[in-house]
User: Fold this.
Amino acid sequence: MTPVPGSSGSPWNVPNLLTSARFVLAIAVILLIQFKLFLAALILFIIAASTDWMDGYWARKYGQVTKFGRIFDPFVDKIIICGTFIALVAVADSGIQPWMAVLVVGRELLVTSLRGMIEGAGKDFSATAIGKWKMVFQCVAVVASLLFLISPAPALWLVWALRVSVWLAVGLTLYSGYVYVMEAARVMRTSDGVAE
Assistant:
């Protein structure tokens, strides 16, 4: 594997710098939505979501996974998703209802608590494929919502794209939360010496 500057365990390597940039973009997106600058918010949101893939790919490819990054990366993911959903609740016709934002935030708090408890006990509680797909559809729902808000007369396909993407995001948020709770219960039973 090719050595890369910043791969010696320093928190300030390329993946963590990308994550830091995503954090700044997340705050900017939330503020832009508040001021109803939806096109700018959409552009920055897409850039921010793209860096999430990039920093993970870079960290794995060049062996730059750090403890700081393992904590900071999911934290920033939660800021951009939870913050954007909450900001969109305040905008009429966004397609995001208050209970949806509560569900998204509640799920993230629950999974974060479970992960902290289990990994604190020395067990692995890595993200699953369903958790990653949940993030994808949450991002799609945000993009659809912002596109809808930008359009002066939204086409029928956009109306349906917004409805379908939001409900898929909500459904996957619920389902992935259930999967993580079941996995946490399994890990805790195993660690307590209970047979599967």
